[in-house]
Amino acid sequence: MRATKEPLNILVGIDLSQMDNYLYSYIHTLDQILDINKITFLHNIKITELPAGMVSEDRLTVIKEKIIRKITRDINESDLTHSFEIQVTSERFSETSFNRLAVMQHFDLLIFGNKQNLRGNGALTSKLVRLFPSPILLVPETYTTPIKSIVQAITFSRYTQAIIDWGNKFKTNKEGEEIKKFPVNVSKLFYYPLMSKKEIERVTEEDVKTKKAKWAKEFPDNEPLKVIPAGDKGVASTLYGYAMQQEAEVIILGIKSESKIKNLFIGSVANELLVRPTNKALLVIKPTN
Amino acid sequence: MSKYVRNKNFVANKVVFFISLVLILLLIVVGVAFPDAMNERLNNFRIWSSSSFGWFFTLSVNIILIFSIYIAFSKYGKIRLGGADARPVYSKASWFAMLFSAGMGIGIMFYSVAEPVTHFGSPPLPVANELEAAKQAMEFTSLHYGLHVWAIYALVGLALAFFAYNKNLPMTFRSAFYPFIGDKINGGWGDFIDILSALATVFGLATTLGLGVMQVSTGLEFLYNWEVTPTSQTIIIIAVISVATVSVFLGVNKGVKRLSSANMYMALLLLAFIFVLGPTVAIMKGFVENTGAYIANLSTISTWNEIYMGSNWQNSWTIFYWGWWIAWSPFVGTFIAQISRGRTVKEFVLGVVLVPSLIVIFWMNAFGGSALEMIIAGDTTMLHAVQEDLTSSLFVFLENFPLVKYTSVLAIILVFSFFITSSDSGSLVINTITAGTEGESTPVWQRVLWSFMQGAVAIILLLTGGLEALQTGVIAIGLPFAVVLLVLSYSLHKGLKEEYDKNQKALKARQEDSYRETINRIVEEEQNIE
């Protein structure tokens, strides 16, 4: 990951649906919080879903022009005031478009819609969460602003520093209020059915104490770590429950991939948060090279 | 003129109703008029059909098992019975309980001790010592009650449920052939399929009733010295059928349903009794080891065909069982289909194949495994008793436990009540098939008729040739029905594929339409602005 001080290059995936308008507004909100250098909007024309008559080269050029014009107009009509660039491609698979662009230019963040009630199956989102090299911010159309607080899922893994760094980029919101950070760790004992209640309490207590001490020692400049025992609930549910309780608008978490080959997979916690109905934006941190 | 009659006194598909009735009556008349000749013919037929077509039964049931597993794990596994929005009516726990009750029946009362002990006494495959004989006995018993059986039911249940819930066809056998023969299901072919499934159900039930009456009469002799005679057996069958039919007349169907749940609890009570007072650890060890050995040797024992051996052991056992279960499949399949709306295909197949198989195999290990444990420990009474009279095995086994008087009575009551509930629900299934209707009520006399018909078939078979005649009956009907099931697999696969393709196409069309519309709209809008 690049040094945190540099302004960010952001790529935004748009699909010409209603979702795009929500994204323009959300990026405007982000623009008042983050230090953004460049915003690129990308739409890939789904040529496989168009009739043969529409995908000839000439016709595609015309369609591309019109799409660029339409997006430009929509953005100009939105709250977004930052300068931007628009790319319209016509790859067979949309993920190829995103990855090709990421090879040519560096992006610090990819922003994508996480449709809750709008139509869409989320297939491209889940592919990009797995395959795109940079962190991805998934924004539901049900998001809430202003951003006042952020929950950071701490696992003491190689994502932890990146999660802290990303949290630190969110300093104050457009109202000038400081954005609160809630670093949290979920303590889950997977072997608890074999233990007595007392033992579980003892082990959990120990786990909480150890993690808090570790946090204080390794990351002393941050907010104190909250460790929540999951009990028989899942890690994702516990994490989400905590974000609800804190009324956080954003959750930052690691994707949980440890090696190159595992980039193809996505952690169960990230996956569960991705598929559950939510009004929180999810910032999924990817493994760094 | 329509073949369907729908009036106050008669509701039927006349073709199916009368042909099924005439064929059954023919068998009964021949049985009464020429019992010896019929016995001889039946016997010859059994030897001929099982020797000539045993391989076909073996092949068919294996194809059905492989097909079920394939369907569960294929892309069709996600298809939901009743459509994407359907949700299960019953919770998983009660669904499992109902599947469990479907697995309970006279078979496990009659054969749970008799079968392993018989195989132990005369091992089907050569063995070096009694330990191997015991293991082999349990493996074959597991084969006859395990995965293959439940795969047959899963196939039939799935086909009935899928075509009824997803294709809105009536829940009868002919509906399952829709993708194969199309609208012909309403014509001669459909009638033929329904006649065959009605006859299969009659023979399957008659066999069950026959085995039940043999066991009850032996039990009564064992307890009260009541002599087993053809007359007493006939009286028992008529009595049971009368109880079942009287309940229909009095409108006490709820009573029979309650009896059905009571059966499950009584069976569990008997199982718990044997488990706790019997060799508990040995039962558990046996269950684990024998199930493991059964799975490990599944491909060998399930495809074994007695080649190069010159024996015909399989005809009285494996082939009989395959015929019996196949004949029984419309009955159990209908029940399973009725309780499974809202399950996915994968859930359905895995639930139906695994849960009852494991429970029944556990039962067999508790009873049969304990019996073998006792024999190996030196008590050979059971071995001799079984060799002398198969029907007495359960009662001789129970003698090894305290309170034998009570447990034997409980066992007899259990067989009796299985008897009544099977007869009751069986006649309902035959009635539905021959009436060619579902949901519509039929006059009570029709159901009574089918009740007595199955009883009559059971009596005739029992009196002409006993157990062997019962076996012949199910093998005879099981053979053509096995062909029907193979065609059914093909038809079901075709139906599932059509459903899957339709869903995919609809999804794609929805996406394409909407995306294409979006692009067209943008191009148009921009042109207007220009």
Q: How would you characterize the overall build of this protein?
A:
The complex is a heterodimer of chains A (289) and B (530). By secondary structure, chain A is of the alpha/beta class. Chain A is 36% helix and 19% strand. Chain A has eight helices and ten strands. Chain A has a ten-stranded mixed beta sheet with strand order 3-2-1-4-5-10-9-6-7-8, sandwiched between helices. In chain A, strand 2, helix 2 and strand 3 form a beta-alpha-beta unit. In chain A, helix 3 packs parallel to helix 4 and helix 7 crosses helix 8. Chain A is elongated and about 70 Å long. The N and C termini of chain A lie close together (8 Å). With 530 residues, chain B is mainly alpha-helical. Chain B is built from 19 helices and two strands. Chain B has a two-stranded antiparallel ribbon with strand order 1-2. The N and C termini of chain B lie far apart (69 Å). The model of chain B has no long low-confidence stretch (mean pLDDT 86). Chains A and B meet through helix 2 of A and helix 19 of B.
